Structure formats: C-alpha cells, structure tokens
Amino acid sequence: MHIIKNLADLSAQCRSWHNDRKSICLVPTMGYYHAGHEDLMAYGRTLADKLVVSLFVNPTQFGPAEDLASYPQDHERDARIAESHGCDVLFLPEAQDMYTQDHATWVEVPKMAKVLCGVSRPIHFRGVCTVVLKLFNLTQADFAVFGEKDWQQQAILKKMCEDLNVPVKILTRATVRENDGLALSSRNVYLTPEERRQAPAIYAGLCAARNLAAKGERNAKKIKDLVLQEWAENIPLGRLDYLTIVDPHSLESVEYLHNDALMACAIRLGKARLIDNILLPACGSQA
Ligand code: PAF
Q1: Residue 28 C-alpha to ligand 1 middle, in angstroms?
Q2: Residues 2, 37, 103, 124: which is the catalytic one?
Q3: Dist. CA 127–CA 133, nearest whole Å
Q4: What is the C-alpha to C-alpha distance for residues 91 and 29, in angstroms, rounded to an integer?
Q5: Closest Cα partner for 231 from 223, 221, 239?
Q6: Which residues of 30-62 are buried (b: 16+ CB within 10 A; e: fewer)?
Q7: Same CATH fold, 186-280 and 2-173?
Q8: N or C: which end of the chain has fewer CB within 10 A?
C-alpha cells in the first residue's frame, strides 16, 4: 500500500491506472476506523481493480461549535487496517493542500441539505459535497462506497452526481452495529459508561417503529410518538435533536406511509451527537 499525501501524486497515480484500463474504487473516510469502515473497504475491494481509501478530517463540514479539534485520530492504526483490506493507496492530504488560501467554490444541494441533520448542522453537507467532489475529481473513481448510517449524506451525494453528471457509481452498505444494536461510530468513544448503557435504546426505538409499520400503522405521527415515549423511558440522559420520517430518496417529510419510508434521528448523549436510521416497510411488506 502506498501512502500518498500530495494531490498531484494521487491524480497521477489514478490517471496511470486508468491508462492501464484498471477500474478504481474510492472509499472516503475521516479515519479512526471501526468495523463499519472495514466493511466499506472490504466491499470496495471487491468492486474494482484498485482500492483508494482517503483519510481526511474535512474542516469545512464542521460547524464552529463542533468537534473538529477533538475528532479522534490514529493514523498508524488506520493505515494498518486499510492495508489489511487490500487498499492500494491511502490518501492522507493536509488541510492546507485540500483548501488553498483562496478556495472559493462550494457545492450545495440546498433542499436536501437543510432538513434532518442540516437543521442543526447548516454548513455540514456543503462541506461534504465539496470535499467528496474534489476526491472524485482527483481520483476519477469508477465506484465509491458510503455507509447507510449517514443516509442523508449518501442521498445528497447521489443527487449531486446525478445533477452534475459525475461519472461515478455510488454504492452503500448497511450500518454495522454493536451486538446490542448501537450503530458503530467513531464518536461512540465520547460516551461515558452510563451514556453507553442507554445508547442502544436508540436503535431499539427505531426497531419498535419498524414493527409498528410492518403491522400496518401508516400514520407517521403515531409511529414517532411511540419511539419518543420509548426513548423518554430508556434514554433519560438523551436530548433529542430530531426524529423524522421522510422519503428515502428525496428526504421530503412523509405524513402517511404509502411507500417505503426512512425514519431518521439524531440524539445528543453527553458530548456525542449520535445519528441512526431505519427503513419502514410499505403497507403489508415485512422489513
Ligand atoms: O462520512 C464521512 O466520513 C465524511 O462525511 C466523508 C464522506 C469522508 C467526507 O468528509
């Protein structure tokens, strides 16, 4: 595995692979790998001749009061993990190279970026779209893999690529969870033991919603009320950021479930802001 830090070197390497008719899969990450990242890499490895993993804690997707400075990092361990998954290039750029002093261009999908996480993180998806499009341009990747825990992110990135004719195929992977259901996240390290004890109730609540929908409940408000009640009982330390039911593709809010819908949430638990989601089946179908 080569570690590349320089943007021009990454472009040159990927151009030479393309000249040799090798396909490229990109797995963009912010590091501090857990089994969810490993699943993205292992899957990416199966898709193309060459696997590029980028590791960059992208400053432009963090708000001023967010955890950019304290975001967990361990590059040596991450490099070992990427290599163990057959990664060909680990791209580790510096922030001043990704964003020069005079950087002035932003990529936005405003309608989809102002809902769900966008309400409390207004600049987040602008930063994500901009950095991911830069990575797509640098690598000219044929495939890219993202996790479904960040459902809104992958939906927005697919829309960006569709609208801007970016020739990459975006694939997604199911959320990897702890045995007790908690979605894996690099931010889980922020949880105290008591917060960690309460955190699995987030997914348990979403599963209760899925069961209610599978039994035929169509009213989004009734489904949300059940979840809120379960969370109030089981996550007393939690502070709700949002709980909402939306169309899985457009992210538009849904009041009655005529088609498959997505229930998505964010909950603050101590220093951590945890997100999760679940697909609610359309009438009659089983999840
Ligand atoms: O999901 C992430 O880790 C980040 O948002 C991404 C896609 C690497 C962009 O910085």
Answers
A1: 6
A2: 37
A3: 10
A4: 10
A5: 239
A6: bbbbeebbbbbbbbbbebbebbbbbbbbbebbb
A7: no
A8: C
The string of pLDDT tens digits covering residues 78-121 is: 999 999 999 999 999 999 999 999 999 999 999 999 999 999 99
Q: Is residue 75 flagged as an active site residue? A: no
Question: Under a CB-based contact definition with an 8 Å cutoff, are residues 143 and 48 in contact?
Answer: yes
* CA distances from residue 215 to 93, 150, 202, 283, 285 in whole angstroms, order as listed: 49, 27, 21, 8, 9
Residue with tokens 């409940």: 217
Q: Which two tokens stand for residue 162?
A: 């569709």
Regarding the beta carbon of 131 and ligand 1, being less than 6 Å apart is answered yes
Q: Which fold has domain 186-280?
A: Pantoate--beta-alanine Ligase; Chain: A,domain 2 (3.30.1300)
Q: Return the bridge partners of 274, or none.
A: 267
In this model, does residue 181 exceed pLDDT 90? Answer: yes
Domain range summary for the chain, segments of one domain joined by +: 2-173, 186-280
